[in-house]
Amino acid sequence: MKIAVLALQGGVKEHIDHLKSLGCEATELRKAEELDEVDGLILPGGESTTMGILLKKTGIFHKLREKIINGFPVWGTCAGMILLAKNIENDEARHLQTMDITVMRNAYGTQINSFSIEKKIDEFSEEPIPLVFIRAPYIVSTGSNVQIICKVNNNIVAVRQGNMLATSFHPELTNNLAIHKYFINMCNK
To answer: Which of 21, 44, 76, 184 is most enclosed, with most CB atoms within 10 A?
Structure first.
């Protein structure tokens, strides 16, 4: 099992460390041809507009989009969720448009409005897990084929649609490995 983290911009190292601590081979992805060498991909947090531009400049965009449409496992955290979204409510930009969700960028406000909570999410763990929100988006609507996994204050913050997982929060910034373990299991199927 080999999972990559898109390493064009954003929080890469923490995801790599979590994957390795679970015994998974983890690598950074910077070129389109590297997609053929991995079993899944994490789109990390960072700046979604910059990441979207870099996906196109590096030639990764079209190959990644095609692979996702054909069942390649992908998990977007924060900015990664925005990259996957079909629609962005407060931005004209569109990126991969593979997940049937509409998101609101920076929905929780600026950096100063960042927060963390603990919440039990049955899909991921029997115990409460820490959720870290940094300038986080949330999902304002989903298609009927999207499974809502978690809400915080009535806002949708975690979803799954087939081979795609998306979270508004940053599990890589905590010591909890539950969601990384969940994604590894997605890649195993």
So the answer is: 76
